[in-house]
Amino acid sequence: MQSYTVDVCIRFMSSEADLDTEIKALSLLSDHPELYEDFIKLGCATSLVSLLSHENTDIAIDAIEIINELTDEDVEAEQQQWDSLVNAMLDADLLNLLFENISRLDESLESDRAGIYHILSVVENLSSRPGIASSIFQNTSFLPWLLKRIEAKEPTITQNKQYAAEILAILLQSSPSNQSRFIGINGIDNLLVLLSPYRKRDPTKGTEEEEYVENLFDCLICVVDTSTGKHQFLKYEGPELCLIMLREGKMSKSRALRVLDHALSGGSDGAASCCEQLVEAAGLKATFAILTKPKQKLDRETTEHILGILASLLRSLPADSAPRIRLLAKFVERDYQALSRLVGIRRECVSRLRPVDEEIASERASLDATQQEDRGDEWLSRRLDAGLYSLQTTDVILSWLVAEDEGAAGRIKALLAERDESLANVKATLKEQLSGMESNSETADADAVAADMLGTLIGFL
Fold it and tell me: Which 3-state string (H, E, C) describes 64-118?
């Protein structure tokens, strides 16, 4: 393999045909990542990257494809080997050369379409390292190009358009700074415009279009989690579009519910404004219709998002305000139908959690304190899978209602008593949730407001 070393070093090729052959031969290096360090020391990594500026775009595309193969996650390279190779390529100005090639490739040509795809794939590979993901939008024109690419009109959604949307979602998930830059160029407005056609119609199943729409929703969810993103979501009438999807959409219905859950969460000014707008836009009817629809068993994801929305509304709507009064009235409608459904969800969660908690208690008994701490994350994951989040959120909602409405408090006590339960069980759930926040030093500051809220609700119980 070392005779292969590439010190063939590219610049000495007698013809472009030879050069093309030697570049493609480098594909074998991905099977031998132990040679990455030698490849770097010989200057071949730098030489390979330099070929991205070759005047013949076919040569540049060959080099991009090899870089994609060498940095692919399927290569069995040690982290240090991968980092060394990527660092050498970045030092050779890989990012700027990649994005310069985007501007000179013509996607009407099959070879150039493949070149764009390989560029996107390299970006995906590099994005596995957060520091690189943050820098991709920082000093390049890649973000405007991505936005333009996902907006491009096409008779049917192509692979590259879908992949561009996927890469945008990955980069937004990887970095808060990327989210800020995207919001700063009115990206949320663009996303809402692109999603608007799907408020009443579904993309064709199993197509690039279906994945494209999923990726657009993923992008939107990333940015509405931020305070600035929530304000932009409001400005461009995002709640209204999502409510249309809730009422009339099919595939988009569950995605819109997820977007609203994220937009309303967090307790910031932006979240409070989104909560108020949902009420003003007649969103309570659509939300409670999902919760209380007769003979409909909600799937886990829908349940979590509905509960999240209700908990956010109770947390953020100002006391004695018209929107809050309207919200509380919805829980009273039809002889407290929503309360009956909430207590029913609670029972389901408790029944799923009980055997898991018994298993964990049995495992805990045979372990010392250090071993128990090591297993803590695994146990929590198992409890979350069994419905812990839904139980905690349901009990927060019930606690708010006990605190604010005597009639609701009486009905909740009666419903709990049917299974020999009481508000003490609800209180125990809140105490456990509060204890988890207090013991997690990493999120202590972020959870301070939520912890204060839980402490107050516990006092009412």
Answer: HHHHHHHHCCCCCCCHHHHHHHHHHHHHCCHHHHHHHHHHHCCCCCHHHHHHHHH
